[in-house]
Amino acid sequence: MLDGYLARKYDVITDTGKLIDPLADKLLVSTALIMLISLDRVPAWVVALIIGRELAVTGLRGVASTGGVVIQASDMGKYKTIFQAVAGTLLIAHYEYFMINFHRTGMVFLWIALAITLWSGIDYFWKYFAVQIKERG
Hints:
The protein is mainly α. The protein has helices at 2-10, 15-38, 44-66, 75-93, 102-136, and strands at residues 96-97, 100-101.
């Protein structure tokens, strides 16, 4: 939070922020989803796909960076994070409040998050391989 606060206050982007901000998002969402498995609130296979995509894209970014290729976060990746965070929050709340079934609503957000998560993961790999083919050809 401190890095984000300073970056906004002084309108700068730090290398630490570039690394820690997306990592913190992934850690927070992944931890919440893993804990919800044991409460039987989310299917384990959905969590496995989401975390698997996160690891795959993080690995891809690492490989790409060793070759001098920077893979920027896409808008789809940002939407993925938003939907995952909202789904996790609603699923943690779980019960019905204000005549809203938070679990059912959270599951809708989770299914949307899963679709965006998988699609954005495919998109990252597609763009990476397109750059690789272009450089070689």
